[in-house]
Automatic annotation (TrEMBL):
Binding site for Fe cation 2: E173, E224, E279, H282
MF GO annotations: alternative oxidase activity; metal ion binding
Name of the protein described by the UniProt record: Alternative oxidase
Protein keywords: Electron transport, Iron, Membrane, Metal-binding, Mitochondrion, Mitochondrion inner membrane, Oxidoreductase, Respiratory chain, Transit peptide, Transmembrane, Transmembrane helix, Transport
Gene Ontology cellular component list: mitochondrial inner membrane; respiratory chain complex
Residues annotated to bind Fe cation 1: E134, E173, H176, E279
Region Disordered, residue ranges: 304-323
Family classification: Belongs to the alternative oxidase family.
Subcellular location: Mitochondrion inner membrane
Superkingdom of the source species: Eukaryota
Cofactor: binding details: Binds 2 iron ions per subunit.
Record function comment: Catalyzes cyanide-resistant oxygen consumption. May increase respiration when the cytochrome respiratory pathway is restricted, or in response to low temperatures.
Residues spanning the membrane: 188-211
Length: 332
């Protein structure tokens, strides 16, 4: 017969013990957040001996130039533009809803920043978001360059320098991802979605680029508008000191070698400002490419024409048409 104290003990005691122990195990198994790597742990994930010089050197930008970057929108002008913009808006809204992201707009939201709700953006959620986005953002440039490369080989003629800029864009987006991978370690859950997202998006973009390169470049232009908006939100959070785990982050060596103005004293804010500037340049480039004749026009970003009496696109941040150049203003 059981002792009296065991008979009187509530029957849920054992269940609570089991639930407690299982919840501890579940926390490790189902922890889907991205872990911020402390500076003291960076040596564990170091692969610096494999770092090479950038294949596409990054232009040098000043602190004033990267700080001046802002969200700019190109209003849709054609039926194709409107369709593409609606697609981007739908994808963005769905992604934000699923991942628990909301940009504060009202005074109350800006004050409380959704504290304690599923919309609160922590350091872990920010890293998860940017790692996933950058894993997808590197697809369009490489896919478009691949198709144009095959087109050039098949027709045995030059590409008029589109391939170089598209490869540079893909390389730049991959450098963003590699940099973030040195700052945070994504969970298995994030990696699964990266695998699935890349597989679906790459094949869709491949097929769409065969059908309409112009629509694809417009799509990327609007996608980069959203990227600038997201990074602007992150910069606002950093400037307001709401993400303390990022304050002491050392900029990874791979980033210091890629962005010429970054060094061991640079901050996480310095890094994000440059990534946002990169996205703003992709916004300008893709909106411009979407305005060109896809088969006949040259890429105006690949070569600077001498003795030209009107402004033309450049690879720096000084251009006036940050939401894209119209074809009538270009020498193509």
């Amino acid at each position: 017969m059981l002792p009296r104290q065991h008979l009187l003990k509530p029957p849920t005691f054992l269940a609570l013990r089991l639930l407690s122990s299982s919840s501890v195990r579940s926390k490790s198994i189902f922890d889907i957040g991205t872990k911020v790597i402390a500076n003291s742990d960076k040596a564990k994930y170091s692969d610096n001996k494999y770092i090479t010089h950038p294949a596409f050197p990054h232009p040098k930008w000043t602190d004033e130039q990267v700080a001046s970057v802002s969200y700019e929108h190109r209003p849709p002008k054609t039926a194709m533009d409107r369709f593409v913009f609606r697609c981007i808006s739908t994808v963005r809204t769905t992604f934000d809803l699923v991942t628990g992201y909301k940009k504060p707009r009202t005074p109350e939201e800006k004050e409380h920043r959704f504290k304690g709700t599923r919309w609160e953006m922590t350091e872990s959620k920010w890293l998860t978001r940017v790692i996933f986005l950058e894993s997808v953002a590197g697809v369009p440039g490489m896919t478009a360059a691949f198709l144009r490369h095959l087109h050039s080989l098949r027709l045995m003629k030059r590409d008029k320098a589109w391939i170089e800029t598209l490869l540079d864009e893909a390389y730049n987006e991959r450098m963003h991802l590699l940099t973030f991978m040195k700052i945070g370690r994504p969970s298995w859950f994030t990696k699964v979605f990266v695998f699935a997202g890349q597989g679906v998006f790459c094949n869709l973009f491949f097929l769409m680029y065969l059908l309409s390169p112009r629509a694809c470049h417009r799509f990327v232009g609007y996608l980069e508008e959203e990227a600038v908006s997201t990074y602007t939100h992150l910069i606002e959070e950093l400037e307001a000191k709401r993400l303390p785990k990022f304050d002491g982050i050392t900029v990874p060596e791979v980033a210091q070698l890629y962005w010429p103005e970054l060094n061991e004293k640079s901050t996480f804010l310095d890094l994000i400002q440059r990534i946002r500037a990169d996205e703003s340049k992709h916004r300008e480039v893709n909106h411009t490419l979407a305005n060109l004749d896809q088969k006949e026009d040259r890429n105006p970003y690949a070569m600077q024409l001498p003795d030209v009496d009107k402004p033309q696109p450049t690879n720096d941040l000084k251009g006036k048409n940050r939401a894209g150049w119209e074809r009538k203003d270009l020498i193509v």
